[in-house]
Amino acid sequence: MLKTIRYQLPAILWSVIILVLCNLPANDLPDSRLFFEGFDKLAHTGFFFVLSVLLFFGKIRQQGSYEYRILTIVKILAISVALGAFIEYLQFYWFTYRAAEWWDFTCDLIGVGMGIFSYILLHRIGVYEKK
């Protein structure tokens, strides 16, 4: 258990950062021309893409190989979905100054899907290079 936590520490820290940033009051965010309508959705996608990549990276380091496992993908998908749902739950019931939206959760899933796709694609490229 502690060995797993050691390898997943970057992903755990990133999850805490996601929780904090997604639950900050909107008026605490700086006003900037960089923020456009829909920036929130792009941020959710990026946050969860990075999270899934960090989870895969930790698992690869823990295994010591790039061995491809469907169970790993399922676990990372479940963890990411649970975190995304938890954030939206917090925004709906606890942090009422933030709006819980299905689109945010959808963008979370898109980011995770991008991370899974990247993992599978890079794994396949690595397999072909070994031959």
Shape, please? globular
Helix content: over 70%
Briefly note the structural class of the backbone. Answer: mainly alpha
Order of helix and strand elements from N to C terminus: HHHHH
Mean pLDDT: 82
Number of helices: 5
Number of domains: 1
Proportion of residues in extended strands: under 5%
Number of strands: 0
Low-confidence stretches: none
Provide an overview of this structure.
The structure is a single chain. The chain has helices at residues 2-7, 9-22, 39-63, 70-93, 102-130. By secondary structure, it is mainly alpha-helical. The protein has one domain. Helix 3 (39-63) packs parallel to helix 5 and helix 4 runs antiparallel to helix 5 (102-130). The protein is globular.
Features of this protein?
131 residues, mainly alpha, 5 helices
Give a quick summary of the entry.
This protein has 131 residues and is mostly helical. It is 75% helix and 0% strand. 24% of the residues are buried.
